[in-house]
Amino acid sequence: MVALLCANTSKAMSQTTATVRLNAQGKHQKITGFGGFVCSPQFTYNHMSTTEIKKVWGESSTVGCNIMRLYIPIGKNSWGQSLSTAKVAKQMGLIVFASPWGQPAEWKTNGTSNAKNSDGTTGKLKRENWADYAKYLEDYVQYLRNNGVELDAISIQNEPDWPAEYAGCLWSASEIAEFVKTYGRTISCKIMAPETLAVNDSYANALNQTDVIDCFDIYGGHQYGGIQTAYKNLAKKGKEIWMTEYLINWNETEGNTRNFDFSKDFFNFFRAINTCMLGDFNAWIHYAAKRYYAMMGDGQRGAGSSGVITKRGYVMGHFAKFVTGMTRIDASFNGASLEGSAYLSLTGDTAVAVVGNTGDEEVQLTCDLPFYTTGY
After folding, report:
1. What is the pTM of this model?
2. Residue among 284, 261, 282 at smallest CA distance from 271
3. Which residues make beta-bridge pairs with 341?
4. Longest pairwise C-alpha distance within the chain
5. What is the per-residue pLDDT across 133-150, written as a single tens digit (0 to 9) for each?
6. Which of 309, 339, 349, 357 has CB 3.0 to 4.6 Å from 313, enough for a Cys bridge?
7. Are 303 and 292 in contact (CB under 8 A)?
């Protein structure tokens, strides 16, 4: 079986021919899946209902995501805010991981939960509270477990390299590595680190030390600041590589209130996912799943009615619904303005190519399969 998924958003003026050749001998990473972040009620926008969650996540959903990222509310008294969503996710059979933004203010060098105060004072976790923080993370794991939710992974810190004037905490690469080495295995679920703003070499190299490498399980990074290459050395040692947050906010970058220009938006969003697939990432997770720049609209800035799947959601669905669980393989594109990636099932009898046509011409595409077929 072969599934070929294509998109051309421009009006075809003429037709050309092209070929995509799939090479099953060139095997790369297994695709764990795709997902998004569910906003906690502590955030000021768009906490998702169960009905909305089931439009984005699950095999029968429109988008087909299988990974959910939770926000860990700051302070144990607030943890209940994330419980109902976590229960829904696990009942649906999803992969669920949780990320902390800020910690209790008394543990921070700047006296607040923010990474940077309005006066410019930045905040780190006091070393005398490192053990307290490790226990705090373990207590959150146990809190969910005692309420019927088994976390698949917990992150050490959301964006430790970004001095945000909101909940956050700054950690150097060496500090993250030291914390993971000292406390990683005191936490009773898989450990993710470092979830930096960019996938940069300094943090990957710090985690790739002989006394650190066995103390965490998943390398997580965000796509905002670019993708360097040292993370691939972690993959060679058995670590999964996840892109755990990214968004494209045209209103922010272009300073307008435009409706979505799909001919432009499609390829930027498609390339963001495809770049990580070609870069050997096992998973790709968007930021907020419901927002005007997300897979589900919130009724703002031309993204469509609140609770309705956006065009970005359909783009992600091409990956989430068809390549989750597969192994990426080599693919070569000849002719026309095509780009994409290819995948092979574990049984070897199903191949998928996710292809974007960035040109103005309609393309008659021939797919050279890595196996013989008796029909189509």
Report:
1. 0.94
2. 284
3. 354
4. 69
5. 999 999 999 999 999 999
6. 309
7. yes
Strand ranges, E, within the chain: 2-7, 15-30, 33-38, 67-72, 95-100, 153-155, 191-196, 218-222, 240-245, 283-288, 327-334, 338-344, 351-357, 362-368
Of 157-161, 231-235, 278-282, 364-368, minimum mean pLDDT range:
364-368
User: Rounded to the nearest 5°, which phi and psi values hold at 154?
Assistant: -130, 140
Alpha helices in the chain (DSSP H): 50-56, 83-91, 130-146, 173-183, 201-207, 231-236, 250-254, 262-278, 311-323
pLDDT at 158 over 70: yes
Give the separation between CA 369 and CA 375, rounded to whole angstroms. Answer: 12
Question: What's the mean per-residue pLDDT of the chain?
Answer: 91
2, pLDDT greater than 50: no
Reduced to 3 states, what is the DSSP secondary structure of residue 287? Answer: strand
* DSSP code, position 177: H
Q: Tokens for 82, please give them.
A: 């994330």
Structure confidence by residue, pLDDT tens digits, 280-303: 999 999 999 998 889 998 888 777
**Are 219 and 243 spatial neighbours (Cβ–Cβ below 8 Å)?**
no
Closest among 26, 30, 191 to 100, alpha carbons compared: 191
CA pair distance 9, 270, nearest whole angstrom:
12
| Distance between CA atoms of residues 71 and 257, nearest Å | 28
Phi, psi of 97 (to 5 degrees): -130, 160
Distance CA(244)–CA(157), nearest Å, equals: 12
Which 3 state secondary structure label does DSSP give 195?
strand
Contact (CB, 8 A) for 358 and 373: no
Give CA–CA dist 193/212, Å, rounded: 11
